[in-house]
Amino acid sequence: MQLGEAEADERPDSRAARYFQHATSGHWDPYAIDIEQDRETLVDLGRRPFTQFRATVAMFGAGEEAVVDDLLPLATVLEADDDQRFVASHLYEEARHAAFFDRYWTDVINPVEEIRGLEPTDPTADRWFPDAYVEIFDRTETAMGRLLEADTPENRAVAYAHYHLTIEGVFAQVGFRAIRETFGPETDGPTVHGLTEGFEHIRRDEGRHVGFGLAKLEALLASGAVDRERIEDVVSTLAPLIDDIAGRMGWKRLPGPSGEELVTDAAEQRAKRLEQLATETAREPESDSAERNGGR
After folding, report:
1. Burial label, 1 (beta-carbon count in 10 A; 0-12, 13-18, 19+)
2. What confidence tens digit (pLDDT) does each residue in 99-114 have?
3. Number of CB atoms found within 10 A of residue 103's CB
4. CA separation for the pair 22, 285 (Å, rounded)
5. Is residue 9 within a helix (H) or strand (E), and if so which, with residue range?
6. Quick check: 14 and 85 in contact, CB under 8 A?
7. Cys bridge to 290: 61, 68, 90, 204, which one at CB 3.0-4.6 A?
8. Percent of the chain with pLDDT strictly greater than 90
9. Cα 107 from chain centroid?
C-alpha cells in the first residue's frame, strides 16, 4: 500500500537522517563498562532487595531481546532510505543493550549468587516476569507483526504507540528512574556504578528511538490518515499493565521512589508523550535529545 504523505521524512535532511547521525556518533561499548565493584555492593544487599534487583535486570534484558525480534516487521515495511538506516541503527542498539544485560547477569549476578550460597539463576526464567509484563510484550509483538499482514497507516500508528511511545517512552523511563534513584551515585543507599553507567548509555539511545517514533506518529496525525483517539486508545489500554509493573519497581527497604510514586510517574510520562505529539515537528535531535525525548 502506498502511504503517501503518511510515509514521512523522506528528505535527505529528515529527522530520521539526523537521528541516525547521532546514533553513529554516540557509540559505546557494553563490554568496556567496569562492573567489578557492583559485585561487592550486591553481596551485602538484603535478600528481598536482591531478589527484586535481579527481577528488574531480567525484565530489562528480556525486553531488549524481545525488541530485536519485534522491530523486524517495521524494518521490512519502511521504504525510505533514511528510515531504513535509522531502524538498522535501532536494531544494533537494542542488540547492544541486550549484550550488556547478558554480560551483567553472567559476570555480576551469577557470581554474587554463588557467593551468597544461592543456586545460579537464568535471566530468562519465568519467575522474573509478572503476567502484566508478558502481556504487554505479547501485545507489542502482535501489533508489530500486523504490519506484515496489512501495512496501513493505522497499523503503523498502533505499532509506534505500543513500542516507541509506551514501552520505550513510558515503561523504560520509569525503570530508569527506579534504578537511578535507588542505586545511583547520588543516592544515600547502595551504589552499583556499572549498572547505572550502562543505563545512562541505554537511556540516551532510547531517547533517539522515542523521538523517531513520536515523529512518525505526528506525521501520521498530520496527514489525516490516523485519528488521535486511536493512539490515545492504545496508550490507555496498555496503562494498567504498565502501572502494574511500575508498582513493583519501588524498593521498600532502600532509598528511592516507592511503587506508588512510580505509578504516578508512569501516568505523567503518558501525558507527556501524548502532549509531545502536538509539538514533535519542532524538535531536533540535538546532543541533548535523550534528555528531551527520552529522559525526565
Report:
1. exposed
2. 999 999 999 999 999 9
3. 17
4. 7
5. none
6. no
7. 204
8. 72
9. 23
158 touches 226 (CB < 8 A): no
Q: Which residues have CB under 8 Å from 207's CB, separation 6+?
A: 289, 290, 291, 292, 293, 294, 295
Average pLDDT over residues 87-101: 92
> What residue type is assigned to position 243 of the chain?
D
pLDDT of residue 266: 96
Using CB atoms within 10 Å of the CB of residue 47, give its burial: 0 to 12 exposed, 13 to 18 middle, 19+ buried. Answer: exposed
Q: What's the whole-number mean pLDDT along residues 255-277?
A: 92
Specify the amino acid at residue 22: H
Positive or negative torsion for Cα 212, 218, 222, 228: positive
The pTM of the full predicted model, rounded to 2 decimals, is 0.86
Backbone φ, ψ for residue 181 (5° rounding): -85, -5
Distance in angstroms (rounded) separating the CA atoms of residues 261 and 257? 6
Neighbours of 10 (CB within 10 A): 13
In the chain, the amino acid numbered 35 is I
pLDDT for 85: 92
244-251 long-range contacts, CB within 8 A, separation 24+: 244/130, 244/132, 245/59, 245/130, 245/132, 245/133, 245/136, 245/171, 246/171, 246/174, 248/52, 248/55, 248/130, 249/56, 249/174, 249/175, 249/178, 250/178, 251/49, 251/52, 251/178, 251/182
Q: How many residues are listed for the chain in this entry?
A: 296
- Residue closest to 58 by CA, chosen among 114, 127, 3, 160: 127
